[in-house]
Amino acid sequence: MKRSWNPRIWIGFVISLAAMVSYPTVFARYPITRDFPWVTLLLLALGIFLVASGLTRAFGRPDAYRGRISGSILGVVTVLLAGFFLFVIFYGARQIPASHGAPRVGEAAPDFTLPDSKGDNVTLSSLLNSSFSPDDGPTAGSATGKTAAVVLVFYRGYW
């Protein structure tokens, strides 16, 4: 009896490769799939499942299906690819070095100029030297004549 080709092993391997390539090229662009790579993890799980079921088929019925040697090799490569992806995403990406040039808590921020929501340039020193006025909106202490305060938020994300 001629043994038939075992497509589950090869399809699972191709899906795993596609998952590895699609994350940096497609899914890393969108926050819903970049912040937690759920689509890539599902594709990797599907690829591992198909390779495992193909290997079970090849070793369970070796007279009917091929792929014991090549399937074993592809199975190991698929698991290594998934492990590498998990290591890079969940451990390696979190090892961002400290920013030595960033101001610390309580430290004075350097003067800078940035556009506001209307497109007008605003300087930090001009905000700190301005006083509250009733036209600025609802603020606590607007009638006291105290100088304005500025809150700076630093976000280290994926740019």
Walkthrough of the structure:
- The chain is mostly helical and 159 residues long.
- The protein folds into two domains: 7-94, no CATH class; 102-159, no CATH class.
- Helices cover 47% and strands 4% of the residues.
- The protein has five helices and two strands, in the order ααααββα.
- The protein has helices at residues 7-25, 31-34, 38-60, 68-90, 124-129, and strands spanning 113-115, 121-123.
- Strands 1-2 form a two-stranded antiparallel sheet.
- α1 (7-25) packs parallel to α4 and α3 packs antiparallel against α4.
- The radius of gyration is 28 Å and the shape is rod-shaped.
- The mean pLDDT is 83.
Q: Would you list the SSEs in sequence order as H and E? A: HHHHEEH
Radius of gyration: 28 Å
Task: Give the helix/strand class.
Answer: mainly alpha
Beta-strand portion reads: under 5%
The domain tally reads 2
State the end-to-end distance.
58 Å
